[in-house]
Write a structure and sequence with these properties.
The chain is an all-alpha fold. Helices cover 87% and strands 0% of the residues. The protein has one domain. It is elongated and about 65 Å long.
């Protein structure tokens, strides 16, 4: 196996792998059952600030 064939293999399948990982992350982030988890996480900094003020 030469350098060029190895580079070509890693460039094509590496791209496929990274696209699959990206699409999985986007699907997980947009999945309806995760909505409440992300809303709670978005409010977390505000809740911590309220605890320190009181």
């Amino acid at each position: 196996m030469t350098y060029h064939s190895l580079a070509h293999f890693s460039q094509t399948w590496g791209l496929v792998l990274l696209v699959a990982i990206f699409l999985s992350a986007v699907a997980w982030a947009l999945w309806p059952s995760n909505k409440q988890r992300f809303e709670d996480a978005a409010q977390l900094p505000l809740k911590e600030d309220e605890d320190h003020i009181q």
